Amino acid sequence: MIQGGTPQNNGIITIDNDGKKTTVSDETILNHVIVIDDDDENIDGPRLDEVVNNTLQIPLTLYNLNKVKNKEYIDDVTIDSVINKDVIQGNPDLLLVSATVWEQRIIENWGNERRLPNRLPTVPRYSMTFKKAIIPIHMPGHWNLAILDKDTKICTFYCTLRWPLREPFYSKLKLICSLLCDGQECEINFK
């Protein structure tokens, strides 16, 4: 059974192995595979989402984590949470375009006005100082990534399966890049 760490104890977790308690840090957790006993007998123990939230500081629900655990499709909330935690936080030069953008039918604007309809969702919400934008792209059955360099106006598309970027994804990526670069045209490269 795993007992999750809290922000007060800096992510230290206690693992109970047959009556022996062992205390480990976040770094140890990230470097080892952990089997979480979530059977019905463990009613008082922490849930998987509590362990992840408290230890790794990634705000995911049990629903999201069960999708990963059961080897189902990873959803946009999981993608956003992990990229935000591992890449964006503490890095003011980076901006995350939310993976939820691929579910939006209409995107018309991006700016410091919070209440505009059909707004491009980003983390942070708006930033004039970002240098690169991380853009996760969900194509049916596969996640891809694009990185926009604001200074050069070049967006590089990465796909581990080497799939081409077809319509409507290509046009939507061009629109996203244009909104982030104050309406200027951006070039899309493929890696």
UniProtKB/TrEMBL annotation:
It comes from the Eukaryota. InterPro entries: Papain-like_cys_pep_sf (IPR038765). This is Ubiquitin-like protease family profile domain-containing protein.
